[in-house]
Design a protein that fits this description.
Helix content is about 40%, strand content about 15%. The protein has about 300 residues and is an alpha/beta fold. The protein folds into 2 domains: about 230 residues, Alpha-Beta Complex (Spore Coat Polysaccharide Biosynthesis Protein SpsA, Chain A), CATH 3.90.550.10; about 70 residues, no CATH class. The strands form 2 sheets. It has a 7-stranded mixed sheet. α2 links the parallel β2 and β3. α6 runs antiparallel to α8, α8 packs parallel to α9 and α9 runs antiparallel to α10.
């Protein structure tokens, strides 16, 4: 039987936390639920204590200084504290469905497979959150990939380098990975990234580990969309958006430099990093930067996120 540690970073999630924890407790495969409380300013800490007191499988941790360190650092602390052979993640405002580990029960019997990912659904909890989400993302109610894949195909697909469209990033809520695989590759979340640390982690994970798609045509977990979702607050091509994308691609670029990646992969990561680096510049500095970059490599003008003078 699977032996799973569920890691839940907790920050200002008092309204949702109990449902999230109960959704994980329904599975006998779940050995422990690790709550990492990140200095919330609502009643989250009190609820965490209550849940831990009520069930021995619920464990509560805080950062040593009891300060706020963000979701990446909280997940890393959870990984360090986990004692299960397998690790899963769950956001405190989301929840698992009864079929959450159906694919894992079969696929993870194969020692070659380090991790399994599936699809998640979207539940709109507020009208404002719904409008903000739909204005920035597709109206699809399922976050999934377009076709079954495993191994190298997953890594290239997430970077948009497969012959056919691979699709969305799969969500952490639908990922199960062997703890031993994380330890072997010394892989953790990048603490510098306050957003996109999940996408950064997933891409790196898909390179270092053998991942396989599980249930991709129906949800195994639900993502709650509400007024306080951070990712929906950032307008596309705003200075803040460009800055955070620059940090994300710089993280991937620094990670990729010592690795024996295929040339098209290395080029793609560099060009995306360079594009967002230039998108943060303004006026003549931006014009000169684009010209110099284009002279060195004209592919910079065909990056996915084109930067134009109107975005200065």
């Amino acid at each position: 039987m699977l032996d799973i540690s569920v890691i839940i970073p907790v920050y200002n999630a008092a309204e949702f936390l109990e449902k999230s924890v109960q959704s994980a407790l329904q599975f006998e495969e779940v050995k422990e639920i690790i709550l990492v409380e990140d200095k919330s300013i609502d009643q989250s800490l009190e609820i965490c204590k209550k849940l831990a007191d009520e069930n021995s499988r619920v464990l509560l941790f805080q950062h040593p200084d009891k300060e706020n360190h963000g979701a990446a650092a909280s997940r890393n602390l959870g990984i360090e504290k986990a004692t299960g052979n397998f690790i899963t993640f769950l956001d405190a405002d989301d929840y698992y469905l009864p079929n959450r580990f159906d694919a894992e029960k079969t696929l993870l019997n194969d020692p070659k497979i380090d991790g399994v990912f599936s699809a998640i659904g979207i539940e709109y909890l507020t009208e404002k959150g719904k409008l903000e989400f739909q204005s920035k993302f597709s109206d699809s109610t399922l976050t999934t990939v377009q076709y079954p894949a495993e191994g190298k195909e997953v890594f290239r697909g997430l970077l948009g380098l497969t012959p056919k469209t691979f699709g969305s990033f799969f969500h952490l809520n639908a990922l199960t990975v062997r703890k031993s695989a994380l330890e072997q590759s010394n892989l953790r979340f990048n603490n510098i990234l306050r957003v996109h640390q999940d996408s950064d982690f997933i891409i790196k994970l898909s390179y270092h580990c053998h991942l396989k798609s599980g249930i991709i045509d129906q949800a195994v977990a639900m993502r709650g969309i509400h007024d306080d979702n951070r990712i929906t607050k950032i307008a596309r091509y705003s200075p803040q958006y460009n800055q955070r994308q620059h940090l994300f691609w710089t993280s991937l670029y620094e990670w990729s430099k010592p690795l024996p990646l295929e040339k098209d992969v290395s080029r793609h990561i560099y060009l995306q990093k360079k594009a967002f680096e230039l998108s943060e510049k303004k006026g003549i500095s931006k014009m000169v930067g684009i010209l110099v970059a284009a002279l060195k490599n004209s592919d910079i003008l065909r990056t996915k996120y084109r930067f134009t003078y109107s975005h200065s």
